[in-house]
Sequence to fold (193 residues):
Amino acid sequence: MSDLALKNTSTKRQRIHPQVFALWVAFGSIIMMFIALTSAYIVKQAAGNWLEFIIPNAFYISTAVILISSVTLHISYSSFKKGNGMLYKSLLVVTLILACVFLVLQYQGWMVLFNGGVDMKGNPSGAFFYLLTGLHAAHIVGGIAALIVAVLHAFTLPYKPTEKRRVRFSLVLQYWHFVDILWIYLFTFLLFI
Fold:
């Protein structure tokens, strides 16, 4: 192999797909937003007048659900690449269902808090809790939209693991793992801070 061909091959391997790069830039901005909000939470909490409350069980269950959904989506992606179309499709649907269950559990948790007197007006602790979990839920809705598109592609397009479809599915997978990790960060933060 000539030096030029070797150089082109190694350069091609080191390039990042533009859509993946754009997704990572979005991750960076989302991370900065949540770091700013959690920092504001710590500052406001230190100022006093902070209502302590117990986080409802629905949030613990939703944490388990989102972790399981990441596992099912990862196995679905691996199955897609390995040519196991049935497992790929079925676990993609399971992931979508689990994502919706996560949102329902979040809503149930909010209702338990609200009915227990923790609202957005009464104390900054409640407002911050709703803000942090609500913004995360909005990102989950974006993930659900991506999962719906992935499910539609899985069931309407002929099964063919092309590079274009692999990249699209990889974007969904990376985003879903990101919102999963983000939730673990937020939930741990809200539990222990």
Observations:
- Helices lie at 3-14, 18-46, 57-82, 85-115, 124-156, 163-192.
- The domain at 3-192 is CATH 1.20.120.80 (Four Helix Bundle (Hemerythrin (Met), subunit A)).
